[in-house]
Specification:
Blueprint (H helix, E strand, L loop, with lengths): L1 E9 L4 H14 L3 E5 L2 E4 L9 E10 L3 H14 L14 E7 L4 E2 L4 E2 L8 H10 L11 H8 L4 E5 L2
Antiparallel strand pairs: 1-4, 1-5, 2-4, 3-4, 3-8, 6-7
């Protein structure tokens, strides 16, 4: 089994219900959620859209990074996400942040997530789930978050 970390986000519809139902949908696919962050609210990127709710979960899986991505895309589809321009509003966004200590660089997937260090809305919930050094990177989420800043991110709720 491999420990992976998945970022969840939603800024359309009932955002909180979307995140909670996404966890159930992930579980129904046989992907075991082993830890979950608080839910955080953040300003949209780019500005001018509804605010996001964000969370991070740890999972245990035997799926390859590519197969895990396929499962997560199927969950997004189930929640109404369709192909759209980059940074469009969405009912659900699921991103693989880490897949064990594996590095992946392909046209479909990059792991660790390439913009992780620029995203307080991912780093804040990630710091709820991983207290020690981040896989592959060797620094803590708190250290990266201190550099990125907490601007526009606040704790919203618990799962």
């Amino acid at each position: 089994m491999t420990t992976c970390y998945i970022a969840l986000g939603s800024n359309l519809g009932d955002r909180l219900a979307n995140l909670r139902a996404a966890l159930a949908a992930i579980d129904e696919r046989g992907i075991a959620v082993t830890a979950r962050s608080s839910i955080w609210e953040s300003e949209s990127v780019p500005p001018g859209q509804p605010p996001y709710l964000n969370a991070v979960v740890a999972i245990e899986t035997m799926l390859s990074p590519e197969d895990l991505l396929s499962e997560l895309k199927a969950v997004e589809w189930q929640f109404g996400r369709r192909p759209s321009p980059r940074w469009s509003p969405r009912p659900l966004d699921l991103d693989i942040l880490f897949h064990g200590d594996t590095r992946v660089e392909s046209p479909a997937l990059t792991v660790p997530h390439p913009r992780l260090g620029e995203r307080p809305f991912v780093l804040a919930p990630l710091s709820d789930v991983i207290r020690g050094p981040l896989p592959v990177l060797g620094v803590t989420a708190h250290e990266v978050l201190a550099r990125a800043g907490f601007h526009g991110v606040s704790r919203y709720a618990s799962f």
